[in-house]
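Entry 14. Ran structure prediction on the chain below.
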Amino acid sequence: MFQRLAQQHRSFVRDLVMNLQALAMVLEQRGYLASCYTCGGEMNSASFMVSLGENHLIRFLVSDYGITWTEMRDDRELMKLEGAEAISQLQELANLVKYHTDSNPEQLVAATMPTIPPR
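Output, structure tokens:
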């Protein structure tokens, strides 16, 4: 059972890395500064970054050790999400890019701010 789960996790990470690479290419085509770096050829980790405007950066990291979404402005961390919350926020960014072909950085900046329920 654990071997099967480990293989499923590796497959999930590979799929996520491929999707991050595609998102970075689309963002670059739309005029954003975006990159996706992987380590080695096995695609078991990636660092995705996109600049949404002046001093506003989103970093998404994925590896066997975890998944994080970090949003920074003026070199200060605004928000850090992990796991499923991080992936959900990445989906929000992808949806904005997909459905707002004429969007500018300021529209994406406003729209990427998540609604996080109070704790």
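The beta strands are 33-38, 46-53, 56-63, 66-73, 76-82. Will compare against last week's run tomorrow.
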